[in-house]
Amino acid sequence: MQSLLYAHGDVQNPLPETVRVLDEILTDFMQSIAFEATRAANYSGRQKIKYEDFEFAFRKNPAFLGKVQEVFEKQKEIKKAREILRDGEDEIMKDAADEEKKREKSDTRTGGAVGAAASRVEEELGEADDDAEAELDALGKKR
Question: Is 14 exposed, middle or buried (0-12, 13-18, 19+ CB in 10 A)?
Fold first, then answer.
């Protein structure tokens, strides 16, 4: 609540009474909207509240209705983006697996010499990264 008040122009540490009053106002507002949405759902013969029930509850206030619609539209966009990303990740993983299989096949065809050289190169790169003096400098210790 303090962050909400501060974001809308109040001091960083508002009076406890101010926070309490805002909490009461928001709680009453949320309860009344939830009650209206529940009543709309019950009238429709449902026990669960749906998006349309909140739209019905906000029908008399276009500003609130617009915000609710905007939030649900953004939620749909985020879901679509996640699906696209997940599908893209699956394709990338399949491509990487196919590429790895091709490399393994080419390594077995050319013999173990190429594979041993490649692993030696990887090991050399790994050891080159281990610089004890640089680690001591990073930790603030000197020899």
Answer: middle
> Could you tell me if 76 and 66 are in contact, meaning their C-beta atoms sit under 8 angstroms apart?
no
Contact 6, 12 (CB under 8 A): yes
The parts of the chain modelled with pLDDT lower than 70 are 109-138, 140-143
Q: Read off the pLDDT of residues 79-112 as tens digits, 9 standing for 90 and up.
A: 988 888 887 777 777 888 888 888 888 777 665 5
End-to-end Cα distance, the chain: 52
In a domain, 96, yes or no: no
Residue 143 lies in a domain: no
3 state SS of 115: helix
Whole-structure pTM over 0.85, yes or no?
no
5: containing domain: 1-57
The CATH number of the domain where 21 resides is what?
A: 1.10.20.10
User: d(Cα 13, Cα 4) in Å, to the nearest integer?
Assistant: 11
Q: What's the structural domain count of the chain?
A: 1
Q: In this predicted structure, what is the pLDDT of residue 112? A: 54
